[in-house]
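pipeline: protein-struct stage 2 | run 1193 | Inner membrane ABC transporter ATP-binding protein YddA
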Amino acid sequence: MSSEESKIKKKIESLTLLSLAKRFYRFYRPYFGLDAKNLKRTMLAGGIILGNTLLAFALVFVNTSMASLMGLLLVPGVTYTAFFYAAAQCMAAIVGYGAITGVDAWMASLLGSSLAHSINKKLENRWMKSKGYYGATLLPKSSAQNPSQLISHDNYELNATVTELFDNFLTTVSNFAVGIVGLYMLSVPLELSLFSLSFVLPGYLVISTVIYAVIYNSITNKMGDSLEDLQSKQRKMEGKIQTKINHIKTHAEAIAFKKGTDYEHKSLLDSIKQSRAVQVSVSKIRSLLTFATNLHAEFTSFFAILLCAPNIIAQKLSFASILEIPYHFQNVVNFFTWKSDNFDKVTDCAVSLKRIEDFNATLTKWEKLQEDNRAHLQFSKGNNKAIEIKNLTLKKPDGTLILQKFTQSIPKGKVTLLQAASGVGKTSILRAVAGLSPYASGKISGLSDNMHFIPSHPYFPVQ
């Protein structure tokens, strides 16, 4: 195994549903409420909750009508009229259940679309209005972010998946409630004899099902502990590759002139190799999770029948009950294994949320830096004859001094050339005069509102 893969395989703190739910609550809380702009989303969320509550009652109706149909088949001399009437009831229950799930999914889709649009507007507005597109490059040790991927792909995928998981979790909860009650009602007390002692275990199906679910859940959680970290690394590597490709496209002519093809080729190839190492590790963990999930899917019905074996042999369970128990068993297990069954989607959401949180944290740092700097770099109206720069001090993001106590008068209407060796701060002075340097202090006067600055690289607005 390569050193890169060894680093990737280091364990991280387990991702818990409670911690993730708290993060999502803080993230989505501003987008819900009873005010005009949030009322629609609040009503959609309430509709999803109501729909899943109705699903629980619909599921009870489905189970009851199915049990009646199975019981009717065992009655000697049953007529076709009675059979088709029971079958029609069963069909109506199934269609009703399906209709509710369809409406529920539709509301979840609308909610996801609305959230994605609102979050996109907020991110874009904050990024542009605060000049975060420029300031993020000036922050010390700022993590590399790709806003184009974040605002377009990540945000839409995050909200679509979150609303889908929210709806799915509520459905799982409603099915769990029906399943736990159904198992308890069908759980004929188990009588055990040991030597001269006799034991009766009421509700043993419920207890056994919960124990099975907890054991399975702990195993899959251990296998998936590092999946979030690996997928986060994979997203970062994808963003890094996109950034390098955009860099090559932007500076194509300069790279060709300066014969930088070999260097850029090696740099891009190294990033692709690192990305492959991450993908290999992700594939291995996903394979293990798929194996455990498939084994569980095939084993559940067998295990449910195995638990009922003593009462089946003693003929204490009807045929309809035997058919119903594995269904309830699966619904109860699904509640405890919900995270494991949706591990890929949950970790995808966690990774996307982390990227948006990092992006917001970067913008917050930039906004705070701007706010703190306003008191150090002072602008005044001055006069119409010259731009006065007094005691200007410039620093790099790491605090290294570039220029100290620089004072200069630049006459208006005349060409003034600042000439000095490369790296001493000529461009930094221009940034400070334009109000773009968060690491400057001093006084600047004489700037007018209609003054324009010409950047070193050409810029044309894109439609």
